[in-house]
Specification:
Shape: elongated
Order of helices and strands: EHEHEHEHEHEHEEEHEHEHEEEEHEEH
Helix content: 25-40%
Distance between the termini: 23 Å
Number of domains: 2
Radius of gyration: 22 Å
CATH architecture of the largest domain: 3-Layer(aba) Sandwich
Strand order of the largest sheet: 11-10-9-12-13-15-14
CATH topology of the largest domain: Rossmann fold
Strand content: 15-25%
CATH class of the largest domain: Alpha Beta
Number of strands: 17
Number of helices: 11
Structural class: alpha/beta
CATH superfamily of the largest domain: NAD(P)-binding Rossmann-like Domain
Largest sheet: 7 strands, mixed
């Protein structure tokens, strides 16, 4: 089968979907793999690395798309490239199914198979394919590094002859994969860490990493069957606001990670809460691209409000593109291995397989 990937819009996305390590694995499964020239050049990967593995390197992306049965991407290609994909071809990536609903519907009408990997079910068998977890892990780590860099004080407690510098106090909002990695990273760097989440199962995980879990009195468990957070009731939100408002008085750095799939990010740090934050405090908002967890977050801007800096990027993984590409490429390879009938050398779109059924756009 002919398998390919084309360049992403590098102003938006620096990650790639096929690394040399994974290219070798596809070729070992007898895929005929094609990539555009300079596919990985921006990550320091030369064309020769791919060429020596047996990858076809071409100048013409239009030719690559037209001659490929499977196309692997990070996100949905731009309209011009998307229009080249024809009936019975398969597009696989993180296609943002909730945001690109209309575009994906049009592709399915054209009988193009679209698999959006952010829709993977949270089951054991799908863990090796879970792009959300692998990428969120890196995002949680990098958010802490970026926030600490912007914070103009020391992070760990330091005892000197001249006096003692207290440890920075960090609050992590949302204890999913990104939040838990943020907690672990902040603890390793010497901070005192607090965390909050609407899912009660998070308490044990937070405490196992050395964080203190902030529990709303009479809290309800707001976890979906798929393991994601669902929207809280008005009563819960009010209690959470009161708890957070008091906690913010002693916090130096906030890492926001709270997201609800397919919806605008919940506003957790409200406008009136900022009066409790000390000037010089830092907020890094990983939910910026979905509206942000604070009242003042703006995408790709550093907003200053009463001496508090709020940072939020559209794609923080562009700052870790090599590591992120390595993990993403492995996730996608594992997904295709499950989808591919090795004996007959064709895709087996078996809708009785929960992984395939949940990710296929219908």
């Amino acid at each position: 089968m002919n398998l390919a990937s084309i360049l992403e819009n590098q102003n938006i996305e620096k990650r790639i979907a096929i690394t040399p390590e994974i290219a070798k694995k596809y070729i070992s499964l007898d895929f005929n793999l094609s990539l555009p020239k300079n596919y990985g050049a921006h990550l320091g990967i030369s064309d020769d690395e791919y060429k020596n593995l047996g990858v076809n390197l071409l100048n013409n992306e239009e030719e690559i798309i037209k001659n490929s049965e499977i196309i692997i991407q990070l996100g949905l290609p731009e309209e011009k490239k998307l229009s080249l994909i024809k009936e019975n071809q398969t597009l696989i990536g993180s296609l943002s199914a909730f945001v690109n609903k209309e575009k994906l519907k049009n592709l399915t009408i054209k009988k193009i198979n679209c698999f959006s990997l952010e829709l993977l079910p949270r089951i054991t068998r799908a863990q090796s394919m879970d792009i959300l977890s692998s990428q969120a892990n890196l995002a949680g780590y990098k958010a802490v590094v970026e926030a600490f860099q912007a914070y103009e004080r020391a992070i760990p407690m330091m005892m000197t002859a001249a006096g003692t510098i207290p440890a920075a106090k960090v609050l992590v909002v949302g204890a999913g994969v990104a939040g838990l990695q943020a907690i672990a990273t902040a603890k390793r760097m010497g901070a005192v860490v607090f965390a909050t989440d609407v899912r009660m199962a998070s308490k044990e995980q937070v405490e196992s990493l050395g964080g203190k879990f902030l529990m709303v009195e009479g809290a309800e468990n707001l976890e979906t069957e798929g393991g994601y957070a669902r929207e809280a009731s008005d009563e819960f939100k009010k209690k959470q606001e009161q708890l957070l408002s008091e906690t913010l008085k002693k916090i130096d750095i906030i890492i926001c990670t709270a997201l609800i799939p397919g919806k605008e990010a919940p506003k957790i740090i409200k406008e009136d809460m900022f009066k409790n934050l000390q000037p010089g405090s830092i907020i890094y908002d990983l939910a910026a691209v979905q509206g942000g967890n604070t009242a003042f977050t703006e995408v790709d801007k550093i907003v200053e409000k009463d001496g508090v800096k709020i940072l939020g990027e559209a794609n923080i993984l562009n700052k870790l593109p090599v590591s992120a590409s390595n993990l993403y490429a492995k996730n996608v390879f594992n997904f295709i291995s499950n989808l591919y009938d090795k004996e007959n050398k064709k895709l087996n779109i078996n809708l009785e397989d929960e992984i395939i059924e949940k990710t296929l756009i219908k």
